[in-house]
Amino acid sequence: MKLWPRRVHSPVVANAAVTLRTAEPGVILDVAQLHEEYADFVWRSLQRLGVLTNSLEDALQDVFVVVHRRLDSYDGTSKISTWLFGICLRVASAYRKRAYLRHESGQFELSQARDEAPSADPEQGALRREAERRLEQGLAEMGLERRAVFVMFEIEGLPTAAIAEILGIPKGTVHSRLHKAREEFTAALSRQEEPRRVGGLP
């Protein structure tokens, strides 16, 4: 399900001349190509890691500033998306801390693209929006450490070894955080269902 935005023009990307060699021999990617191919992935990752909607464009820009500065650190031993997710995690952590210090209010939002066409099937659209709402509320109740592991494993499909490398923690810690995150997510979904049961709704 597509939960993220229109493309955002990035002056850093537009002016970048540095190139990045991928794990595949002979393939060269520059920053503009990375932005073109992965901007949606980065936006989605930042959303799911709790960056507030009004900060998403700035956070996206910050991620690609870091990409521009750290191209030489990518050695091709992991997927580019895995490398980018690690950058997203650090940027999201910084934004969440800033939001806390400014006492910002508001919940994590999985906003739709402004130019996304409405669903041809109203019932399917309603089901999708309900699934997004449940995911949003479930993630919002997790701390960033468990939330990051949950998003990486359950949503992005990263293996535990890659998650451990990104976070710099043992695989056993990844498993324990994932176990706790699953419990929290399940509990959050149960609390969402409670008002319906009390009200006699299915």
- Approximate shape: globular
Radius of gyration: 18 Å
Number of strand elements: 2
Question: Based on the structure given, which CATH architecture of the largest domain is correct?
Answer: Orthogonal Bundle
- Distance between the ends: 25 Å
H-E order: HEEHHHHHHH
Considering the protein shown, what is the CATH homologous superfamily of the largest domain? RNA polymerase sigma factor, region 2, helix turn helix motif
Secondary structural class: mainly alpha
- Mean pLDDT, rounded to whole units? 75
Low-confidence stretches: 1-9, 11-27, 103-117
Helix content: 55-70%
CATH topology (fold) name of the largest domain: Rna Polymerase Sigma Factor, Chain: A
Q: Work out the strand percent.
A: under 5%
How many domains make up the 3D coordinates?
Answer: 2
Q: What labels describe this entry?
A:
two-stranded antiparallel sheet, Rna Polymerase Sigma Factor, Chain: A, 8 helices, Arc Repressor Mutant, subunit A
List the helices and strands and how they pair.
Layout: H1 11-15, E1 19-21, E2 28-30, H2 31-48, H3 56-69, H4 80-101, H5 122-140, H6 144-155, H7 160-167, H8 171-198
Antiparallel strand pairs: 1-2
Helix pairs in contact: 2-3, 2-4, 3-4, 4-7, 5-8, 6-8, 7-8
